[in-house]
Backbone:
């Protein structure tokens, strides 16, 4: 279901919302997003929804660059790690970890390669202090960048629940050898017309919560302003002779 359809459903639940043009579609969509994330985090904390293919957004190809490990932590060592060239949009977090379905390397054919294991940077620093460094493939996130312990890694693929819109230059990379062509419609599509990542069984709850919040906050504020003779316009400071 698209964001526009969800916005229309919210407006259709109450006449006040359907007739007030001051509440824009983008404002309603923003409230829908907030409430969706709230419910989804509750579900993922209960170990649900992790296998769904509609909730998570996949970035098919993220360029990585080699950086010293000291860039992301206080570990004193000459070793290098890899880091995403671009900062990622904010990723939703649950009680236990980021809501990331997976991070993979990209093989020579442009397909999914080896899956990385999530660790905190502190956990990885502890691994480095062990007499025998584990040979596993790990990733962590610091300051909005994703790092891996493979310094020679060129590209990765990530599937995650992003709380911010993913920019086209990240979602549809033009210089990636992932073998994927993107329809022009996807690049130019209005955010309201994109498929909205809300599980079907949560839609009615999201719409109801959104409607109630808009009615209780926006219209209460509007009523208070009216009662106090405040119309929201800047005062007229022009003086007359």
Residues:
């Amino acid at each position: 279901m698209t964001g526009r359809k969800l916005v229309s459903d919210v407006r259709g639940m109450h006449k006040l919302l359907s007739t007030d043009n001051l509440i824009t579609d983008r404002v309603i969509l923003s409230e829908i997003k907030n409430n969706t994330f709230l419910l989804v985090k509750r579900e993922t904390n209960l170990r649900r929804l992790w296998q769904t293919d509609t909730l998570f957004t996949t970035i098919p190809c993220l360029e990585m660059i080699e950086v010293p490990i000291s860039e992301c932590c206080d570990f004193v060592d000459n070793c290098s790690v890899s880091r995403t060239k671009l900062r990622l949009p904010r990723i939703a977090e649950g009680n236990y970890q980021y809501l990331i379905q997976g991070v993979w390397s990209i093989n020579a054919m442009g397909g999914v390669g080896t899956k990385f294991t999530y660790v905190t940077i502190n956990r990885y620093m502890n691994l480095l202090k062990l007499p025998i460094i584990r040979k596993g493939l790990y990733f962590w996130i610091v300051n909005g960048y994703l790092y891996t312990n493979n310094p020679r890694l060129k590209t990765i693929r990530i599937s995650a629940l992003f709380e911010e819109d993913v920019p086209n230059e990240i979602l549809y990379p033009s210089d990636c050898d992932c073998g994927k062509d993107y329809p022009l419609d996807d690049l130019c599509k209005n955010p309201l017309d994109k498929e909205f990542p809300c599980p079907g069984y949560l839609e009615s709850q999201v719409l109801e919560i959104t409607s109630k919040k808009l009615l209780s906050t926006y219209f209460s504020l509007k009523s208070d302003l009216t009662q106090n003779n405040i119309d929201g316009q800047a005062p007229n400071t022009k003086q007359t002779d």
